[in-house]
Amino acid sequence: MPDRPYVIDQLISAKAIAARVEALAREITAHYRGTDKLVVVGLLRGSFVFIADLVREIDLPVEVDFLEASSYGDALHSSREVRILKDLRGEIAGRDVLVVEDIVDTGFTLHHVKNMLLSREPRRLEVCALLDKPSRREVAIKATWTGFEIPDEFVVGYGIDFAQRNRNLPYIGKVRFTDTSAG
Ligand code: 5GP
Ligand code: MG
Ligand code: MG
Fold this sequence. Notes:
9 strands, alpha/beta, 22% helix, nucleotide binding, Rossmann fold, binds magnesium ion, 3 helices, binds guanosine-5'-monophosphate, 3-stranded antiparallel sheet, 32% strand
């Protein structure tokens, strides 16, 4: 599949992303004002660019930790089974936790990760997702903060890959196959 020829059509510009990240960070800063315990948890690997930009706009002391859950592999479709490939380094019991996710699609990943983290009894747990595809949802779940709602397209860029490529694009684009076969 990665060998099929494709082009990337820009959906969200780098400038629009930066403006939205700044606005999200303002809301997050206001929400957590006064806490000295915020742990920002990035879900690897797709959120690494987003979390880097987001934490630099959050005007509070933060700790950064990472969690890796498997979902897509290299395919275009979600697996319902979610496995934890890399756990947090730090403890979150009694702490304010902000999970940073790239895309909420079917919702299975976030549902699983949230439940797992809640079982460790954080003080509060919120989620900030860069992108949301509400039309694809199979588990009723919503991020506390969402950057952009997008249609049911396969997207790449700004940390998000297609078969491990295109993470370094500064914008978000959708993959469009240019051969004639369907799908
Ligand atoms: P869910 O469990 O909500 O179906 O899937 C969530 C994960 O699937 C996202 O965190 C992301 O890693 C991946 N995913 C969902 N949609 C896309 C997409 O359009 N492009 C890429 N590259 N990954 C996606
Ligand atoms: Mg993800
Ligand atoms: Mg991926």
